[in-house]
Amino acid sequence: MICYIHSKICVENPLYLLNIVTPNLKLTRKVCLTFSYFLLTFSSATFATDFHLSPGDNLQSVLDSANDGDIITLESGSYLGNFIITKQITLQGPKTASAKPAIIDAQGKGHALVVKNSNITIQHLNIMNWGYDLTDENSGIYANDKVSHLTINNNFLKGDGFGIWLNKIDNAKIFANKVEGNPTLRSADRGNGIQVANVSHSRVYHNETYNVRDGIYVIASKNNTIEGNTMHNLRYGIHYMYSYDNSILNNAAYETRAGYAMMSSRRLIIQGNKTRDSEDYGFLFNYITYSTIKQNHITRVWTKPENKVLGRDGKGLFVYNSGFNTFTDNIIDTAEIGIHLTAGSDGVKIYGNSFINNPTQVKYVSSKKQEWSEEGQGNYWSNYLGWDMNNDNIGDTVFEPNDGIDKLIWQYPEMKMIMDSPAILILRWVQRQFPVLKPPGIKDSHPLMTSPHTQQISDLLASQHAATKE
After folding, report:
1. What are the distances in angstroms from CA 293 to CA 150, 205, 330, 348?
2. Within 13 Å, how many C-alpha atoms sit on residue 96's CB side?
3. Domain 49-183+192-232 CATH (choose: 3.90.470.20, 2.30.130.10, 1.20.140.10, 2.160.20.10)
4. Residue 272 above 50 pLDDT?
5. What distance in Å separates the CA atoms of residue 336 and residue 357, rounded to the nearest whole number?
6. Structure pTM?
7. I need a labelling partner for 378 at 20 to 30 A (CA). Which of 69, 123, 134, 336 fits?
8. Which of 284, 272, 186, 182 is nearest to 229 (CA)?
């Protein structure tokens, strides 16, 4: 406090400092002002207080009376209620792994923590039992004011509503959190694990979400990075709506209805992600434009027998009304349909991918021709039966995954019952003999003889085998 008073007086009357130092020390006006600036700039940091609270203490009272820069550490135990943070502080639990957690328990109603200022850090807490009213956006951590520079890390959240809800936030870092929902609720009745709305220049990374509705839900947000997260046992791993200039990198999703559901967004970089054991889609693209989808790995997209209805098949890539995108260097392995492209998805580049063990490699519903190779490089198709006379790893005959019979079956699924009948075999033979009768479709003029991803597939199988043994 004395430093603060001196600095204040010195700013108002710089020569005052000359009277509180040794008379023989000749300080210039410039030195005095510089010293005063130093005091004012660092006085708040110098006098930040570190509070240590026990479960019996009044947490909300301390939050209200705290000053910017204070650190509030909660000792092990439960803190009951709904708390509001209005100061620029750090709220944290014990950092040592051996310590019992500090638990924020909202007792089944409202938000557990509400954030209403910038430069706030929330870390090393267990947050649980907040409300389940999705209309009121009940959340474990709720930030709905226009603030910036939030850090939320190393927390465990468990509840029925939304885990972390961010709206109108700039420069946030959300990392190393674990969000668990309620598996006894219907998927539609759960909140999302991490919800990011109207957020910019932020990172969501190295989090785990499960038993929620969607793992990470991003809407109306731009210039963000979603990286290294794990999402499982939920509806959609990552769900995008109306967002631009985002990067989705190196995430993993498994046991989902769709690993990644990307809708009404543009200029996305979707790279290095993995999804396995999805029921409906590995990646779903609905009105995605001017985006790059590369180096992703999709494994086992198969509708469960008990959920099987006519026309419901697991799709590795489902591309609907999405144009001017590039799909390259991806692995689509063991999906009922490798890629389903439809509804005006034009201007796409598809090359350098591996389509492996998919009973239907391509389902293409359009009246336009498309070439799926680029600068002499096509894709690897595990059912390609061509040859390579000059050993350049490029097939000497084009690969056309579909014919007119396939399109008839897509229009009339009941025809599957007569797929191997003599009539169908004759129709296929006629199309091969008279190509003019064949409808427009997909052509890969430079199919690859071997997969460029053999090593990655081998490594993945080895890691999965090791995990099974453990």
Report:
1. 30, 19, 8, 11
2. 5
3. 2.160.20.10
4. yes
5. 9
6. 0.84
7. 336
8. 272
